[in-house]
Structures are given as C-alpha cells and as structure tokens.
Amino acid sequence: MKSCRAREEGAAVGRRGVTGIASRGVNITQVARAAGVGTGTVSRVLNDSANVRPTTRARVLEVIERLDYHPSRLASGLSRGSPRTVAIVVPFMTRPSVVERLAGAISVLDEHGYDTVVLNVETAEQRDRHLKSLTARHRADGVVVLSIPIPATFLAAFRKARIPVVLVDTEAPGLPRTIADDARGGRLATEHLIALGHRRIGFVGDLGFEGIGNHSTRQRFSGYRAALQAARIPYDGALVRQGSHSAATSSLLAEELLGLADPPTAIFAISDTQAIGVLAAADRMGVEVPGDLSVVGYDDVEAAALLGLTTVRQPLKESGARGAERLCLLLRHERVRPLREELPLEIVARTSSAPPAAGAGTVRAAGGGSAGRQNAFGTSGDHERRVRGEHRQLLSEQPELHRLAAER
Amino acid sequence: MKSCRAREEGAAVGRRGVTGIASRGVNITQVARAAGVGTGTVSRVLNDSANVRPTTRARVLEVIERLDYHPSRLASGLSRGSPRTVAIVVPFMTRPSVVERLAGAISVLDEHGYDTVVLNVETAEQRDRHLKSLTARHRADGVVVLSIPIPATFLAAFRKARIPVVLVDTEAPGLPRTIADDARGGRLATEHLIALGHRRIGFVGDLGFEGIGNHSTRQRFSGYRAALQAARIPYDGALVRQGSHSAATSSLLAEELLGLADPPTAIFAISDTQAIGVLAAADRMGVEVPGDLSVVGYDDVEAAALLGLTTVRQPLKESGARGAERLCLLLRHERVRPLREELPLEIVARTSSAPPAAGAGTVRAAGGGSAGRQNAFGTSGDHERRVRGEHRQLLSEQPELHRLAAER
DNA sequence: TTCCAGGGCGGAACCGGTTCCATGAAGTCG
DNA sequence: CGACTTCATGGAACCGGTTCCGCCCTGGAA
C-alpha cells in the first residue's frame, strides 16, 4: 500500500508534473467521478448501449465534452479483444492499378470504422516479415491481401491464429477472394485485335512483380495464346517480350518488336503503363497508331481514355472495395458468398486499335524477305524456347522468378 | 472470490472451450509459468533489457518459441503508453505525386518499427473527421500530414494533446515541415520557356485539391507571374486556365488555349498529369510539340521521361521519407533542425520544349491583332480580374474553393 | 568472517477501457 | 399489498503487457 502510494506520487511528478498540469490524459475514471456515476455507466454511454437513463446519459456526455475526454483506443481495444484495425498487404503500392485497389479498400474500411495499416511490399523478405508480424495477437482484426500470392506457410499461420484473410487479385483455396479472370482478359484483348484482322500480334509483359507479385502476367499470356490458337494463328515466340513493369522498359521492348524484319501489326501490353511505353516507342520510330500498329493495354487507368488507348477494363477501385466489404462481413461473422468472386472485364475500344493496313500483317508475313525469319523462329514449341531468354519464363515454371525469390 | 472463480470457468468454457483447446491466446503469464520465471523476466527478455542471465534468457526464448507466443501489441502499447503507430493524412492518395510521397513515408516508418495508418482525405468533412480522431489518446504516436493545409483549430488540438505533427508539402508555423518552393518551381518552369524565347506562355492549373488541398497551384502561379514580370513580359489573363486535376480536364483547357486567336507558343502545366493532357490536346489538334508548342510539366513522374516531357523535378518519395524521419526524431525527443526544410527543385529539359517557331510568339504578339487584346487584358491588377472567372481564385481568396468546402 | 554493493529476479500495481455480477429501486401482476 | 420482474447502476475483475519495488544471492573489500 505504501509503495503504491509512493509510486502514484512519483508518476504524478515524473509524468504529469512536468507541465505543471495534471490534465494530461483524462480517463474514464475521472469522467465517472466528475459525472457522479460509475465507470460502467460511462462506458455504456460511450458505446451507445441501452439501459442508461436519458438524464444520466446527458450528464455524462456533458462531462465528456467539458473535460475534452477521448477514450483510449488501446485500452478499449485490449479489453474488447480487438484493435479495430485491418492490415492491407500490397506490393508496389505506387503503381496506378495497385493504388486504386488500395484506395478502394481503405475507403470501405474507413466507413466501417476500421483503421487501415498499409504494409507495402517490394521484396520477398519484406513480404515474409510483414505476413509473419500479422499473426501476432491484437495486431489486426483481419487482413486484406492485394495482388500478391501468399506462401502456404503463412496461410496456415493465419488459420491457426484465426485471423480472417481476404484476397483481392490473387487466389488461394478456401479463402474469400475477389478476382478478375486474367486469362479471359488476355483473350479479350487478343480477340479484339484478331477481329480487326490482325494476325501478327505482339505481347509485352512484365516479370510478375519481380518475384513476389501475382500471376496475372502469366495468365494474361495464356489468354493471349488461347485466342491465337482459337483463331488458328500460329504462335510466334519472337513476338513476345518481357521486362520490368515500367513504361520505359516496355518502350524498349516495343522498339525491339517494331524493329523486327517482320514486325507485329498489333501489340497487346499487359498493363496500360506498359502500353503507354509501347505508344511512346511507336511515336519515336514514326510508326503510326493505329495505322501501322494497333495497341491494346490493360486496366483502363485514367490516362488510357485520354490517350485513346484501347484497353481491357477491370474495376480496380471496386475490387479493393469488395475485398474490404467481404472482410467486414467476415469480421461480423457473417457468411461470405461466393468464396470466389469474379468481377467483370470488358474491352474498351478506343482509337489505338484499328484494322491493319492493307498488305500488312498476314499478307506481308506470308511472303517476302521475312519468310526466312519466320521459318527460323517458327511456331513449333521446340523453337519457341530458343528465341530470347526473356520470354522463357512464361512457358516454363518461370525459373528466373523462383531464383529471385530464393535469393531473398 | 466465488464470483471470480465462476466467471473464470465461464470464460474458459465460453470463449476457449468452443474449440476444445485452450491454446487460443498464449499470454505472458503462461510463458512465465512454463519457463519457471516471473512475468517481469519474460518482459525483460522480450525487450532485450539488461540484467537477465544468459541461461535464463535462453530458457525463456525456448519456451516462447515452443508455445508460439506473440506478445499483444495492444497490451504492450497500453502499458507503455504508445501504440507504436503513426498516422498519415493525405489527400487523393491515388495521384501519382501523392502516392510517391506516401510510399516514401511508409517505407521509413516501417524501418523504424512503426505501423502506418493511412487516412485518405477527399472532402473537407473527411479531413476534419480524421484530424479530430487523431487527437484521441493512444490513437497514434505522431502524425505526418501530406500536401494538405491544417485548419488552425486542429493545430491547436494537436498541440494540446501533445501529439507530434510533421508536415510535408504544406506549411504551418512552428511545425517541422519539408517542402519544395512551389513559387520557385513555377518560376523555373516559366524562365526555362522564356530563355527559349517564348513570350506567350499559357498556364494550366488545378483547383487546389478541390477545397482541401494545398496551395501549390497558387504558388506555382505566382512563380509564373514573377518570371513573366522579371522578363518584362506583360501578363495576359487569357492564357490562364484552371480546372479539376485530371489530364482529361487539362486537355480541354489546353484546347481552349490553342484555339485562341493568338494562341500561346508554350504552356506550363502545374503537374505532369495535367501536362500529359496538354500534350494529348496538341496531338488531337495537330499542333506539333515542340515545333508549334512547348510544354512544361511539374513533378517528373515516371511517364514524364518516357514522353520526353520537360518538367520541374521535385523529390517526391524523398519528401515523404524526410517527413517520416523527422517525425521519428521528434518521437525520440531529439531536435529537429531546421524546422522548415526545403528540398531542391530542378528543371529537367526534355524534348517537349524548344525555341518557338520563327514569327511566332513575341514577334506576333508584339504587333498585329493581338495587340488590342494585350491591351484589354493587360497587366494591371484591375484588368486581371475581369478575365474569365476561372483564374480569379488564384488572385483573390479562392471563393469557389471555400464554397466547395462549405457544401461538404 | 562480516558487510556491502549490485545483479538477477518475482510479482504487485498499473495502463484505461469493457463486461459481468450484485444491488436497489421502480413497476407489474395476482 | 406482497412476490416477482425489469431497469438503471456501481464497481470489481479482467484484457496482457511494463515497470518498479524489494528480496535474495553472490562476490569483493575490510
């Protein structure tokens, strides 16, 4: 008892006495005392729970106002057992498509009264560190994972720690996920070009978030291939390029494609960012769009409309919002149906795509000097792999990516 | 005592018994018991504090590992009096320049072990709600405010609640702030064009974040005017346009400018996003860049380099990082000097700017039909205000903005 | 051998809410 | 008019760490 008293005085002097005012930290006890009620009643008022007489409630509210009392988030979180916080794990948050999703999610979580902690991930090490930290008790009520696959270890850890997880733009069995069908998107883009009459269609992709990101590139590529196959257009690996996800890089890749002896008449880029790079390359090389080259992007970011870029639109902001909503359902222990939710895709035709110029594409490709090349880099699977290392990842299990991940 | 016991049993059945396992929520007491030590010792091990015998430490660590114990963030935060969390208030987080700053800040805070809560603001009401919530106890250890001015009421509230605040890209007296001199940036851009020989220089701005954002537009505009004045070029209000901060809008504004009887030979846009809109407009109208029109943007986002856009570069990511670092200093009670920190600006000349075509610009502007205009919309303050409502905001107290804010 | 300093450590008090139980008062029913 | 709800309320226990006090033990000085 004595020590207790001594300590209280010490605290008063050491922590609060510095300012000479004891006003630092009004707490619920002080409010209760000032209002002449018990702490329980104050708590009931704070939480709008029933069974508080209106006059009492008014009196307490008045005191709260007068003392400028703000309840401690930590304390209420601790006793309630929930921090009222959601964590969002997201790779490369500065990318336009990613930040749109992120903003959509934050906005919904905010409406539901959750704080949002953003965990930005740019390396596998960072990803693991953040995922690991999330299984700690009272770290977050739930987790939204955007555009990044989660290693199975962590999935298990989340399950064990009973932390609700929802996925957006990435998949894992058993978890609620909101996705768009990237393979279908790739097919839509390619089919659009085929319908316009193109037969030599290039592909510009990224490296799959440099070892940590999702598989959208691979899937969009498979859609590209499926569309070609359906149209009986032989696949030409020489028309496929990959590089880091930046307009600058894709611009160089497009230059390579356009510099081929038998260049493509159309290019499908895996994102609008990269499509813009393609447009820039065409501009630099004096290749007319859409006269000499059609370009299709992906995402329909704001700049796409402005540049007249034909693109595959996916609801970015909405995907984040949906993920957040579904997490909120989960947190209220409501059913989340369907577990796997697919958002619509649509091709938005603008001025960057048009039928190929007469004599270009199939016709030109069929004869003339380019024929030799076409033979050399023909359509048989055997040959595909020989053509430039950059696109081998798409065809095999992406060894480069695995290597990158392992190095980290 | 009896009730206590009864309750404990109830809890065991009700909360943990559901799963049949009591493993939900290993806490420090259980760890202490399992390791045969006191809770204090476990805490000392967790916090790497001295005075723990190596053998004891090892034993505790082993138990922690075995029980898969993760300390509760809420509990440690509560007893320590700090949530180890920083809040970032940011307007329109999806804008490229903003998200760069945000990412820079998050990255630094992460390194320092702070969680980052992102509060995205798109309306004045949202801003006020978020700012108000931040003065609550244990909400955040500190606040970084990006690109948005804080009303004085909230500044006072933060001071009273003793919550450290640092500003980035916005100013307030007495607070640590990291900024770039927007007026100087506007001057740099304009001087660059003047040095190339331009004399009819248009200005395309936004509406200052629609009522909640910072004053950068106004300051860049003042830099623009200062540069004109220094070069003794009469200010022509007809060459100034403002609209919402989007490439689509700026594109329309640029069309208006280019459609003038005496169009500008150069346009300074207050962001790269808006400059891209200008480029698109020029493209649509068949105006050659830089032959017929020079364009200068601001920020130097990634797309700028690709498009060959001349721009004013400011260190975006770094500004956020600096702000975060300074907040961390503050949180460690170290001195933050200087309070007002200015980051460097530089003009990056690319291919979107060049000397005006012979006969254009100064020559044409000096005589001919435009003379009358020039007189009508001359440099006297009296006349400026008459020219189109859109740019009046820049000169007066921005009544439109206030109205917008009030409506929300 | 005695005394003292100080390291190692257990555990109570505490951070500030929430929740449940007990209590008393007011209201209802027979 | 008494027994039985029902409602409003005070307050203790609790959430799970941190910290400080004080005890014990060891080693060095006297």
Describe the protein in words:
- The structure is a homodimer of 408-residue chains.
- Chain A has 408 residues and is α/β, with parallel strands linked by helices.
- Chain A folds into 3 domains: 2-71, lambda repressor-like DNA-binding domains (434 Repressor (Amino-terminal Domain)); 83-180 and 319-343, Response regulator (Rossmann fold); 182-314 and 344-407, Response regulator (Rossmann fold).
- Chain A is built from 19 helices and 12 strands.
- The first copy, chain A, has a 6-stranded parallel sheet, with helices on both faces. A 6-stranded mixed sheet of chain A has the order 7-6-8-9-10-12, sandwiched between helices.
- The longest helix of chain A has 16 residues, at 96-111.
- Chain A is elongated.
- Residues 1-23 and 361-408 of chain A have low confidence and may be disordered.
- At the A-B interface, α5, α6, β2, α11 and α12 of A face α5, α6, β2, α11 and α12 of B.
Q: If you consult CATH, what is the topology of the largest domain in chain A?
A: Rossmann fold
Number of continuous helical runs of chain A = 19
C-alpha Rg of chain A (nearest Å): 29 Å
How far is the N terminus from the C terminus of chain A?
A: 55 Å
Residue windows where pLDDT falls under 50 for at least 5 positions of chain A:
1-23, 361-408
